[in-house]
Amino acid sequence: MVIFAKTKGHVLPDLLRLSNGIPSHDTFNIVLQTLDCEVLRGYLFAYGKEIVDVLAEKRICFDGKKRRGVSPQSRGNHGLYIVNAWVAENKICVGQEK
User: Cα separations (Å) of 12 from 28, 60, 64?
Assistant: First the structure.
């Protein structure tokens, strides 16, 4: 989150006021540890339904990648495969599976 804030910081003043600058990694860690996971899950689920409604008529692109491991031609290949569902028009990842 800190890296994102530093690289995309030019848009943050339009979204929120940070009078002391971008919070540190430790500050994010403390705040995230105090969140109630069930409450957060409920909010994300409700917000996710709104996003799905907006994206319902959009084209979804799928992209697969193999992370770490050996070449696909090797026997017993145990690399990590990840598939992403991406809505290019809105520039948002709507799903990811390992």
Answer: 16, 28, 31
CA distance 85 to 64: 9
Q: What is the pLDDT of residues 39-82, one digit of tens each?
A: 988 988 888 888 778 777 788 889 888 776 656 566 666 677 88
Q: In the structure encoding, which two tokens stand for residue 27, read together?
A: 């500050």
Listing from the earlier edge strand, what are the strands of the sheet with 92-97? 61-67, 80-87, 92-97
Residues 6+ away with beta carbon under 8 Å from 90: 54, 55, 58
Residue 19, pLDDT score? 84
